[in-house]
Amino acid sequence: MICRNIASPSRGISKYSTDVAIENPVDPPVEVKHTQLLINGQFVDAASGKSFPTLDPRTGDVIAHVAEGDAEDINRAVAAARKAFDEGPWPKMTAYERQRILLRFADLIEKHNDELAALETWDNGKPYEQSAKLEVPMLTRLMRYYAGWADKIHGLTVPADGPYHVQTLHEPIGVAGQVIPWNFPLLMFGWKVGPALACGNTIVLKTAEQTPLSAIFAANLLHEAGLPPGVLNVISGFGPAAGAALASHMDVDKFAFTGSTKTGQFVHELASRSNLKPVTSELGGKSPFIVCEDADIDKAVELAHYALFFNQGQCCCAGSRTFVHERVYDEFVEKSKALALKRAVGDPFLEGIEQGPQKEKHCSLKITQVSNAQFEKILKYIKSGVESGATLEAGGERLGNKGYYIKPTVFSNVKVFLLVIITSCIFPQRLRYGYNAKDEIFGPVQSIFKYKDLDEVIRRANATHYGLAAGVFTENLDTANTLTRALRAGSVWVNCFNIFDATIPMGGYKMSGHGREKGIYSLENYLQVKAVVTPLKNPAWL
Fold this sequence. Notes:
Its EC number is 1.2.1.3. With 542 residues, this protein is an alpha/beta fold.
């Protein structure tokens, strides 16, 4: 599926329309039904009795108070998952029966499309049209894709150098611990849960504390589809209490994490220090988007704009380093500026809105109010860019007085080393200062660099510790082939961007993570391979 042009400005919505689109937010067309933890098929309160607010990024107001799980709740959830795996029906079901449950789940997602989309937009801030027309249908497609795999997972019969029958068994790995991020809650729920269930595993999943609502709703639908109790347990809570307990739990057999690189390093450390559980991780990115001198500039500007500003710039694979050949640089910058100024920013529930508010991060273990760390981080990056000599072409400031809206921002003449102050809010003890333009900003800020030739742009594009994705825009096949093989990234999109079909693997090189999600490769994360060798007596053939 191509995620381009999903929403275009409609009549009545103009750029920066603060009076209608921001100051008077629309009432979301959905009711919050589930705010508790889901353990062993039941909605329950946290053992501590605590809860925390999840907030509307349009206003900063509380949407609902959600149960705040901690280590004790993780223990309860892991015990339920372990019992469901060791004694329950899920891994002992025929693959066909597991497939039928996942297909029923996909049908229920489709039935509740608008409700799920409204929860996603309300809790996250992304445009409703994006949630309803793109992301929830993609979740439906994902679950049908993995349902199709459930009865096609099998081992092999292999030859041996002697009279032996040798077969390999592909067995479920056991209890999977999973942590999903706040920028794509529903899609990341599908990326994690789909392959784990298709392979016959049980799960304890921690939602992002910033956006817990849609995943809890989806998990309830999965149980409505017939999932046995204990197979999927969902805990809402904070990283230092719930996430760390899950990553380090001795009875969790495998761990999967999507989030920042710094937190990913800590997760790998916890997993290795406990029971050396395998970890798959999809981490940060600072993806290059390379515009070659032969490019159709109008199309390149449009695609580069989409590559960066999609989802408010809150995308790990965002094309946040735009490299443009010097011969077309000035034209590209002027047209990028014009396009940014036309972008419709406002209440994400309004038709035609392309960019909603930034989602905020919680930065305290005991939350009584929201911190605007993410919002302030982006504004500090913009300020440091100006102070470092970059040219601010568009945006660069807050939009309106309510909520967390930022004008689409474009920089030209960007220096590589721009001072940025970034704080890790998942594990607050891990603070880092002094990032540069090679670091992930996670906001609507496009930085446009100039280059002279392919050797230079390859060197500069790879000069980062990230390697999640890259984009190439050219009409020359030889140029495309040269770049796709030279770029150190897990995904390279040529004349397109953000193609996230269920069949296409996603993952990073270098410090952008380990392993792959989606596609056939994702199944390997949730299977063990066992070799079974049996002697043959007087075999007719070997």
